[in-house]
Amino acid sequence: MPRDLSALANENTLSGMAGLSKSNKATNIEREPPMDASDDGHTSDASQPNRLRDDIHPYCQTLSLSDVESCTRLEEATFPPQERCTREKFEYRLRNCGELSMGIFTSLKDSNLPTGETSAPVYSGAPERKAVLLGHIVATKTTTLVVTDEDMAYPTPQNPDPKLGHKEEGRTVCIHSLAILPQYQGKGLGKTLLKAYLQRIENQSVADNAALIAHEHLIPYYEKLGFENKGPSKAQFGGGGWYDMVKQLQPSQNITS
Ligand SMILES: CC(C)(COP(=O)(O)OP(=O)(O)OC[C@H]1O[C@@H](n2cnc3c(N)ncnc32)[C@H](O)[C@@H]1OP(=O)(O)O)[C@@H](O)C(=O)NCCC(=O)NCCS
């Protein structure tokens, strides 16, 4: 079986997931119907995190400019001030390469979550139901193997240096923000989101590597998800102390009938 098909047969992660496309970048289009994000296709009564995660019915979809406010709130709830992606940076990233992003959502009627107020009506016949952002990945591309401070920055009218920010010709996806709302951490959502994201990047063959910088305590987390620790990073973003984590991607084979 071609690799794509066998992957889809083995995991539900990407069932029906939209591809990476410039066409839905930076638009306020009505959301596409939700895609189930159940991970690995297994549920066990003995597994409390999976049971809780399944109660949430999470689904993944590409972010757009209309998600900037929710992303900003999610970031404020999960990162210390010096490590947060600002509203302006989210705007830059979602405007220029929103197709490299992904959110994990749940459909709720009422929510006291930080992202509850900023959520949009869900694609359904029940307008009171909102698509509430529980976690996100926001990324750019770079021409190097690891994430640099220039990749973490973005060009502004005051400093329009083209070395800053997203490089469309790059073959490494820089994952800048992987974050899950604190109330929903430890339920497998981070793993589900990252696996779905990486599989989509591979299926679309838009990059050869995925890279991120992580603090030491999260090295085992990323290693379990297939990243390799390349040692201390030169990046000084947010005060430094990061490690370079890189995962080589497996571009998908063309499917022939
Ligand atoms: C890091 C983060 C994204 C993980 O998401 P999560 O949904 O809480 O994690 P998951 O529930 O998917 O964990 C998946 C697995 O990793 C393990 N894990 C979680 N945190 C871990 C850690 N710090 N170290 C090692 N393993 C860890 C879990 O035990 C689980 O293992 P299992 O698959 O064997 O059951 C989330 O905790 C978060 O948003 N933290 C704050 C922001 C942040 O630091 N982001 C990372 C920036 S580099």
CATH architecture: 3-Layer(aba) Sandwich
Identify the CATH homologous superfamily: Gcn5-related N-acetyltransferase (GNAT)
Q: Briefly note the CATH topology name.
A: Aminopeptidase
Q: How would you spell out the order of helices and strands?
A: HHEHHEEEHEHEHEE
The major pleated sheet works out as: 8 strands, mixed
Structural class call reads: alpha+beta
Q: Total strand count, please?
A: 8
So what's the overall shape?
Answer: globular
Bound molecules: coenzyme A
Amino- and carboxy-terminal Cα gap: 10 Å
Describe the protein in words:
This is N-acetyltransferase domain-containing protein. Residues 9-27 have a biased composition (Polar residues). Keywords: Acyltransferase, Transferase. It is a single chain. The chain contains seven helices and eight strands, in the order ααβααβββαβαβαββ. By secondary structure, the chain is α+β, with helices and mostly antiparallel strands. The protein has one domain (3-248): Aminopeptidase (3-Layer(aba) Sandwich), CATH 3.40.630.30. Strands 1, 2, 3, 4, 5, 6, 7 and 8 form an eight-stranded mixed sheet that branches. A hairpin with an 8-residue loop joins β3 and β4. The longest helix is centred in the C-terminal third of the chain and has 16 residues, at 189-204. Mean pLDDT is 83; it is low at 1-35 and 38-46. The structure holds coenzyme A. The site of coenzyme A has 19 residues, from β5, α6, β6 and α7.
